[in-house]
Amino acid sequence: MGASEQGSGQVKGRWLVVPRTLCFILNGEDVLLMKRSPHKRIFPNRYNGVGGHVERDEDMLRSARREIREETGLEVRDLRLRAVYNVDAGDEMGIGVFVFTAISDQRTTIESDEGTLHWIPRDEILNYDLVEDIPLILPRILAMGPHDPPLFVHLSYDASDQIQLRFAGE
């Protein structure tokens, strides 16, 4: 089946998804989080993992490695898919987020205009001003074993614009 037979031209009335990666890098009992720059349109001054968009010629794993390298300068190992989100922000276009964990044997990072990087002890993470879904998902991800299958999550907002997370199987 060729590219023209994949049905990509059939978009009218369908929900389209923009793929992104989100990565949580571990070093001992610490997790690397980025405090997003105040000038960023999305999540300014809030803590999140590192990551971003998926390039057209990339798979999700390659995108995660590239984003980690670009935003932190770290070479990581044991990169594992931990969750897949569908984010319904109310438009015809949604966001598909592929969440990974990785291990870094070093802690020295580079500077980035995306924000500042901070190694935060696992037991202190919830004390930070996190992006709103991180307190709901990160504890689950950090509790996962090395061979646990990824979580599947649907994220949406209710009529009061409050976040709603649904985990498959619950």
Structure, explained:
The longest helix is centred in the middle third of the chain and has 13 residues, at 60-72. The chain has helices at 60-72, 134-142; strands spanning 16-27, 30-36, 47-48, 50-53, 77-87, 93-103, 115-121, 151-157, 163-167. It has two helices and nine strands. It is globular, with a radius of gyration of 17 Å. Helices cover 13% and strands 39% of the residues. It has one domain (14-167): Nucleoside Triphosphate Pyrophosphohydrolase (Alpha-Beta Complex). Strands 1, 2, 3, 4, 5, 6, 7, 8 and 9 form a nine-stranded mixed beta sheet that branches. It is mostly beta strands and 170 residues long. A hairpin with a 5-residue loop joins strand 8 (151-157) and strand 9.
Concise summary:
Helix content is 13%, strand content 39%.
Offer a few descriptive terms.
about 170 residues; Nucleoside Triphosphate Pyrophosphohydrolase; about 15% helix
- Secondary structure: number of strands: 9
CATH topology: Nucleoside Triphosphate Pyrophosphohydrolase
Please state the overall shape, judged from the principal axes of the Cα atoms. Answer: globular
Radius of gyration: 17 Å
